[in-house]
Structure formats: C-alpha cells, structure tokens
Amino acid sequence: MKLIIATIKPFKLEEVREALTTAGVRGMMVTEIKGFGSQSGHTEIYRGAEYAVNFVPKIKLEVVVSASMADEVVATIVNTAQTGKIGDGKVFVLDVTQAVRVRTGETNEDAL
Amino acid sequence: MKTRCKPRQFKEKMKMQKPLKLLAATAGLIALPTLGLAQEADTTPVNADIGFIFTTFMFLVTGFLVFFMAAGFAMLEAGLVRSKNVTMQLTKNMALFSLASLFYYILGYNLMYPGDGWSIDGILGAFSITSLEPVGLEGAEPDLTYASVGSDFFFQLMFCAATASIVSGALAERIKLWPFLAFVIVLTAVIYPIQASWKWGGGFLDAMGFQDFAGSTVVHSVGGWAALMGAIILGPRIGKYKDGRTVPMPGSNLALATLGAFILWMGWFGFNGGSQLYMDTAGNVSDISRIFANTNTAAAAGGVAALILTQLLYKKPDLTMILNGSLAGLVSITAEPLTPTLISSTLIGAVGGVIVVFAVPFLDKLKIDDVVGAVPVHLFAGIWGTIAVVFTNDAASLGTQLYSIVVVGVFVSVSSAVVWYILKLTTGIRVSEEDEINGLDMSELGMEAYPEFSKG
Fold it and tell me: What is the CATH number of the domain that holds A75?
C-alpha cells in the first residue's frame, strides 16, 4: 500500500476529486493548509502599505491505495492539478505498513 | 447673496427668553434683518405659515438623515478595525453620540448661536441651556420666516455629533474608553460650538465673508484636527510601524465598512441639503435639489478617482480606499454644494478622492496611525473643499478662505492638544500593551463582537 500526499491549488480540488474517483479511488483525506515552496509567498497592498504573504493557502490530499494503483493515482493528480504556473504543488509517495477498517476490523488492502 | 449663517435664529430665541418684551423686540428684530435681506422678503409666501412649516419639516427630515450618519460612522469603523476591537468601537460610537446630544443642549447650542447674547462679540457665544418653544407654540410667536427652534436645534445637534464621530475612528484599537469620552464632552460642549459660532453663529469669520455652506471646515476639518492631534499624542498601534515599514492591519469586515460608507453617503444629502436652511420658496427647493445632485456627483467622482488611482498605483483596486475616496468627495463638496455645476462637482469630488489615496500612505510615512483614514478624508479633503469654494462662488475670496482654515485649524489643534495632554497626564489615554494586544473588547469591556469565532 502507498500513501500519496499531494498539495494542490485550492481551486483544483473538485477537479482532482472527480478524476480520482473515476480512476477508482474510494476515499481521501482533505485538509486546508498554508505553506510555501519555490513560489515562496507573494506581496499584497492594503491601504498603500505593501505586505508579504509568506504562506500561501493550499489543499493537502492524502490518499491510500494499493501499490499497483499508486502510479496511476499520482499521474491523475499531476495531470489534473497542473496549470503550468508556479505554485501548482507537489506529490509525495510513502509506504504504508498497515491499514484497518474500524467498523469491520478488515485489514490492509481489504480495508481500503 | 444669501448669507449662510442663521441671522434669523436669534430673534426667535430672544422671544422665548424674554416674552415680556415680545412686542417691542419682535417689531425691531424682524425689521432689521428684513431690510438687510430685502430680496428674500419678496419671496415670502402669502400664507407665511407655509414657509415655516416646510422649512421646519425639511430640518426634521434632513436632521434624521444626518442622524443616521452616526450609524454610518459606527459601521465604517466597526468594519475597518480588527475583530478584537469591534465591540469597543461600537460602544464608543453609541456613547459619543449620546454624550454629544446631551452636552450640545446643555452648553453647545447657545455657545454656537448666541443671537445678540455674545459673551465676547463675534468670538465667544452665550453660556446658557437650550430651551424649546412651548407646547403648541402657546403664547409664543414663532419667526415665520425661518423654522421652529426645536427643528433647528435637532438639525444642528447632528452636525456636532458627526464631528465627534470623526475622531473615534482615527484613534481606534488603542485608546481607553473613558478618557476618549471625556474628550468628546469637551469637543461637543465647547470646542466645536465656539469655532462654529465664528461662521454659522454670525461671528467674526462670517463677518469677514468666509464661505462654508455645510461645514468642510466647520465640521469636517474640526473633527480631522482633533483626530490628528489625538493620533499624534496617542501614538500608533503596537506593531503598526516596524523597521521603517508600515504593517497593514486589515479590517475585520469590509461588508460593514461598505454599508457604513453608503449610509454616510445617504446621510450627506441631509447634511448638505438641509444646510440650505430654507425650504419656503420654489427657489430654495430648487437649490436643495441642486445640492442633492451635486453632493451625489462629488461622492461618485471621489470613489471613481480612488478606484482608478489604486488600480494604477497598486495593480489592484483597494476597496477601503474607494470607500474613503467617495467620502472625501463628499467632504470636498460640503463647503459649497450649491453653486458648482455637475461638472465642477465631479472635479471637486475627484480631487478629494485623489487626495485620500496619497494622504493615507503619507500619514503612515509620518508614523501617524489613523485607523480608518479620518484625517485624509475629513481634514485634508475638508481643506481642499474649503479652498475649492472660490472656483464656483464669487462671494468667496481665497484669502478669507485660507485665513479661516488657519484660524479654525490653530484653535482646534491647540485646544484639542491641550485636552489630550491633560488627559494623558491625569488618567492616561492609552491601554496597556497586554490589553492592546488582547484586544479592547475583552480587556476593557469583557465582551466580544464575534464570540463564536474566538479561541475560547
């Protein structure tokens, strides 16, 4: 099993969710986050005074899928979330050693 | 040329105060101003009651329009302060309006309109409490060429309260409640009425030919000067200026701020329209209409100027500047909303909007922290509006306008600064650092405006 963590632009969330469910993903965790990467914030002006927005709002997706699906899911996220402009986000893939469905006690891939 | 002071005002009050001399006084007093303003006498309608009724009615309607500006100030300020200070800002606005209402009748009104009861001729008015006509005008002969004393008092009171409202926004988020209210009492009972008597009470500035129709100087710059002195003596909010840079402290609710600006805009029709002072002839009604149209035009031009200018300067329009810009347009046209054409009104208002966009960062450069932009809007645009009178009104001279701006400015700045310093040395005017950072809502009042969103 793989845990796929992706940060994306907030306005892309709905598109990514649709693409992932079409690809067979049956669950995901979504968090509103702030952070910076190579975009490293930007500046705004309020009443004539410039100020830096150091942390940019993003959406963090966490999806656990079977190892065989992982590449397809990563590709789907990248293809859907991409705008080509700075700040599109990143995708990380980690190994998952165990999974349990709380309701039934099913484990690992059966629990996904 | 119609005079903008209230020459007829005192006749009525004299009658009220000295009913025994009624016959003699009435004969003498009506005769004098009528001779002086012969062209007005020609327009008196056949049934003299009609003029009295309509003018009184106009004062009541325009008076409650100006009253509602108190709500406008409250919403504008509530929206432009941070959420931890909203309850305090609302409390101040409610309290200042109420205190102004009381102290204007206790002292202010007769200081401002002494009639012939000046303590020092043309400079210091009368010290007495305001009294209204008897119920049903029983035993009184009203001045049928003007309006009821009650309506005039009600209308003028609203201007006094507006002056105090201007101050509260500039000093938001760091001033203690009670010292602020103490200042409001001095401002509304003494400072505002004394300088207003110089023009509208028929004092020495009026005698010199100073022109200020509805109060760019008499109301707005006075609030602006008092606010500027307060802001300087009080100092900026903690963290506002760091390492030579200005740190923005965005307002809590721009929807409320916008509502406030629109309410002020609406109230201004009463502010300027009612300052025509007469609605007894076709000419006066037409003038009031002209004033409404000019006032609206100037506000619009100020807003558009700020919209375009912030887009050009900052790449994005700044709503708070557009709000300030339209208000600056209104302040600019207030000194002379009657004589300009629509095109002149557009230019006068637009310059007001431009002034605001440059004045807000300018004050920040000087490290003067004016939370809502009260000084740029009311003082700077007020000065501009007072000068702009000379472009459209032949009765105004640049020298007299400038002289009056300076005289009023010096008087209000010095007296305000003295009061602020006395308060600073006695009670202190600023909350502690911890209280300021925690927000005045909890530290001074123990009550939050938006408790659902608090951390607790």
Answer: 3.30.70.120
Phi, psi (deg, nearest 5) at residue B129: -85, 150
Where is pLDDT greater, at B450 or B78? Answer: B78
A47 and B360 in contact by Cβ < 8 A? Answer: yes
* Interface predicted TM-score (ipTM) over 0.85: no
Cα–Cα distance for residue pair B318/B307, rounded to 1 Å: 7
Domain boundaries, chain B: 12-25+43-453
C-alpha to C-alpha distance for B402 and B205, rounded to whole angstroms: 11
Q: 3-class DSSP state for residue B323? A: helix
pLDDT digits (tens, 9 = 90+) for B171-211: 999 999 999 999 999 999 999 999 999 999 999 999 999 99
Whole-model pTM: value is 0.84
Alpha helices by DSSP H, listed for B274-397, are 282-314, 319-334, 342-365, 374, 381-392
Q: Rounded to an integer, what distance in angstroms lies between the CA atom of residue B80 and that of residue B67? A: 21
Which of helix, strand or coil describes residue B142? coil
Q: Is B178 on the interface with A (CB under 8 A)?
A: no
Determine, for residues A48 and B320 on separate chains, whether the beta-carbon distance falls below 8 Å.
no
Cα of B220 to nearest chain A Cα, Å: 21
Note whether A47 contacts B245, CB cutoff 8 Å: no
Residues of A within 8 A of B250 (CB-CB) are 46
Mutant choice from B81, B241, B316, B318 vs A, greatest count of A C-beta within 10 A: B318
* Helix orientation angle between B319-334 and B381-392, rounded to the nearest 10 degrees: 40
| Paired tokens of B24 | 């003699």
Chain B stretch 229-268, residues whose beta carbon is closer than 8 A to a beta carbon of chain A: 245-248, 250
Domain count, chain A: 1
Mutation pick from B81, B246, B312, B375 vs chain A, by most beta carbons of A within 10 Å, is B246
Q: Under a CB-based contact definition with an 8 Å cutoff, are residues B221 and B354 in contact?
A: no
- Protein fold of B12-25+43-453: Ammonium transporter fold (1.10.3430)
CA-wise closest residue to B352 among B395, B417, B397, B295 = B295
Residues spanned by the domain of A89: 2-111
